[in-house]
Amino acid sequence: MSNVTVIGLGIMGLPMAVNLVKAGHTVTGYNRSQDKVDALVAAGGNGASSVAEAVKDADMIITMVPDSPDVEAVVTGDDGVFANARAGALWIDNSTIRPDVAVELADAARAAGLRPLDAPVSGGEQGAIDGVLSIMVGGAKADFEAAEPVLNAIGRTIVHVGPSGSGQTVKAANQLIVAANIEALAEAIVFLEAYGVDTEAGLKVLGGGLAGSKVLEQKGQKMLDRDFAPGFRLALHHKDLGIVTAAARAKNVAIPLGSAVAQLVGNIVAEGDGGLDHSGLFTRVARSSGRD
Ligand code: NAP
Q1: 162, 185, 217 - which closes a domain
Q2: Same domain, 134 and 90
């Protein structure tokens, strides 16, 4: 059993930390706002009042914050992870950030004596609660093998995909696939509703064929119910589509579908709905079809 520190106890970080407690690890949590630290303590974890305090005895440090600048803010500087963690500790960034930033931060972590892994996750809030996330891991193979027993407490499909940055590259591809799926599902549901089809029956049979997907399973009913509470906020998906469109452009990869859905997500965020779940893309499909 390990001393594990989790920094960032949001929609994903808190249930991940709770699953680590349930697996028998000693878990210390740090979060900017205190209420989430209190929730971890109530679930059997320990609270810390600074990053430095949280990481000083950790064998493994998990960061789970929104974006590249947020990860930089918690790991660098005198009060950050790199300056305060024990030499040899594993640093696992489960946040979704830019692959190039992941590579830079991994180099800085190694220079500080740490063992970095970029390990973004997929599976949503429910996957975090159930401990069944997919985790795509970049970094040294030996460090991956050292982290795997602990990652087993939060994920089910845990795969080493290459050197530092590779995990984030795979996650960018993941976000492209998910966004395109959500848009297609929203369009299909508005289409079915326009024809007065029994949509629950329709989704049931679609789910059993080639159109079936995790997106359909997790988001189909929410679209029928017009329940767009997050989950995964559109603002975060906007961030991720910015990552994939920039990274694709840097390698001259054409992603016309990805670019179109990136525009749609950008528009809905600009209109003030970035706090909706990403299934909230449905609202714009419905509106532009005169059916909201
Ligand atoms: P979230 O609910 O917004 O939680 C983010 C956490 O990070 C909050 O606890 C927040 O603290 C903290 N934080 C934000 N900025 C910070 C900063 N500059 N310094 C220190 N702490 C900071 O986000 P989430 O949905 O858990 O997502 C976290 C990461 O996982 C993102 O990279 C996201 O893309 C990825 N992800 C999310 C999902 C999902 O379904 N939600 C699925 C897969 C991957 P406060 O409480 O003080 O605001």
Answers
A1: 162
A2: yes
Distance 1 CA to ligand 1 centre (A): 26
Same domain, 174 and 156: no
Question: pLDDT of 144-198, one tens digit each?
Answer: 999 999 999 999 999 999 999 999 999 999 999 999 999 999 999 999 999 999 9
Do 197 and 284 belong to one domain? yes
Q: Are residues 62 and 149 in the same domain?
A: yes
Of the candidates 201, 210, 232, 205, the one whose C-alpha atom is nearest the C-alpha of residue 219 is 232
In the residue annotation, 204 being an active-site residue is answered as no
pLDDT tens digits, one per residue of 187-220: 999 999 999 999 999 999 999 999 999 999 999 9
Ligand 1 mean position, distance from CA 8 (Å): 6
Is 140 found in the same domain as 14? yes
Joined together, the tokens standing for residue 33 give: 């706002």
pLDDT at 292 over 90: no
Give the residue numbers spanning the domain of 120: 3-162
- Determine how β-strand 90-93 pairs with β-strand 115-118: parallel
Query: Distance from the CA of 84 to the center of ligand 1, in angstroms?
Result: 22
pTM of the model as a whole: 0.95
The residues, ordered by sequence, that sit 6+ positions from 59 with a Cβ below 8 Å of its Cβ are 2, 3, 4, 86, 89, 90
Ligand 1 pocket: which residues have CB below 6 Å? 8-13, 31-33, 36, 64-66, 70, 73-74, 95-96, 121-122, 124-125, 231-232, 236
| Among 171, 204, 239, 251, the one annotated catalytic | 171
